Amino acid sequence: MNDRATARRAALALALASVLAIAGFTVLGSVFEYPQVLDEPTADILALYRAHQGAVRTWFLVLALSAALMAPAGVWLGRLASGRLGRWIAVTGVAAAVVQVAGLQRWVTIVPGLARDALDPTRGASAEDAFERWHLVLGKVVGETLGYALTATFTVLVALALRDRVLPRWLVLTGYVAAALIATGVVIPLVDAASLTNFAGYVVWCAWLLAVAAVLFRVPAEKPLRAGRVV
Asked: Quick check: 211 and 174 in contact, CB under 8 A?
């Protein structure tokens, strides 16, 4: 696989990840009031989930697919970068995909049963307790905290790898800004305002992915992408 083909595959993965993320968050924000709904009492979350279960499950699957695409994108970008930096890009891309899919899949595989059990007077309390445990472990710790840290790291590494020879300076700087804002999500449990900066970071990040994808897809066949340890 030559560099141009690899760049185009990475571009398609990044663009599709961005489009699916935008679509998923937009629809879930409309039908499920996500992510603001997570601040509501557990009983209210589960009630709203039951009311729109089909749509909510479908669009969380879309978000999970968006997150999963970071794995092949990371592998292809890692091949372009080569060397130690390339290996780190591949590792962080795959890791970011794994932890985010692990967090998101609970809405498809675990929450439906808990939402149903919550209606049973004999199991309602235990179902709500289980929802809160899974939300803490898979949601906040794995999907969110680890996901934020790995996504921010991946973004910085990609910006470093593509600077100078591929990306214009303003797009490299935009990647750094998006990564910094996303990383603030790690302190959301301690700083409420971090939820806003984190959200802003993902908005910038989705736009950045599309811009990077556009640049990669238009790389001329004769342009060398490799230069030592970085692209």
From this structure: yes
